[in-house]
Write a structure and sequence with these properties.
Layout (H helix, E strand, L loop, with lengths): L7 H24 L2 H21 L6 H20 L4 H25 L3 H22 L5 H22 L7 H24 L4 H19 L9
Helix pairs in contact: 1-2, 1-8, 2-3, 2-8, 3-4, 4-6, 5-6, 6-7, 7-8
């Protein structure tokens, strides 16, 4: 579905579904209602897949890479639902691969090297701050995976900077940074201090960011 053929009605479905599912998910997590979490999280993740398809993901190289990344993130969401280290590690791998596919997608959009330089400073600052804050609180067996994951996120953010000047730049950069920042809530919940407040802001930010990235497909063109 090319961008000029998109209709608002084609996008309302996934947008409304996401809003309802994410709201219900946040309430379920806050109330400790596990059945609500297991019901609403897959639906919320499915909504960003639906949005990407409605926006024309299959009609551009960018969209196809983005759809692959979104699918891996959906898989990561499913892995993170149980509360155990094995599932968390599987989710970490799925999200890591998703970040890599996003990076490849961004490279297909544009190659603004000045944008790469502009994004380098905040991305590296985030990398250093997160590693200095997080690694001392992570068990020895998980430090290497967490460090690699953080480096991959930084790479994804750098690649997002390459799209500056493209019509989809605002959606891509906001989505990429929102996704990265939402991971801080997950890290704090897993490694620092588990409480009901972490998902209260991290979950909406994560799903909103994924919806932004899915919607960016509509601005990618039919062959990019």
């Amino acid at each position: 579905m090319p961008h000029d053929a998109l209709t608002l009605s084609a996008l309302w479905g996934p947008i409304l579904l996401s809003g309802v599912a994410v709201t219900a998910l946040v309430i379920s997590d806050f109330k400790g209602f596990r059945r609500g979490r297991f019901l609403c999280k897959p639906i919320a993740a499915g909504a960003f897949i639906w949005l990407a398809l409605a926006a024309g993901a299959m009609h551009s190289t960018y969209g196809q890479w983005m759809l692959g990344g979104l699918a891996l993130c959906l898989l990561g969401d499913l892995f993170l639902m149980p509360d155990n280290e094995r599932s968390f590690l599987a989710g970490l791998v799925a999200f890591l691969c998703g970040h890599l596919l996003y990076a490849v997608a961004f490279i297909h959009l544009a190659g603004n090297w000045q944008g790469l330089l502009l994004s380098a400073i905040p991305a590296v600052v985030l990398l250093v701050v997160v590693l200095r804050w997080l690694l001392p609180q992570v068990d020895a067996g998980m430090q290497a995976p967490v460090a690699v994951y953080t480096l991959v996120i930084t790479t994804m953010l750098l690649c997002a900077g390459l799209v500056i000047g493209h019509p989809a730049a605002v959606w891509v950069i906001a989505g990429a940074w929102g996704f990265a920042l939402s991971d801080l809530a997950v890290a704090r919940q897993q490694f620092v201090q588990a409480n009901r407040l972490n998902p209260l802001w991290g979950t909406p930010l994560y799903f909103f960011s994924q919806m932004l990235l899915a919607a960016s497909v509509a601005l990618a063109g039919s062959s990019t």
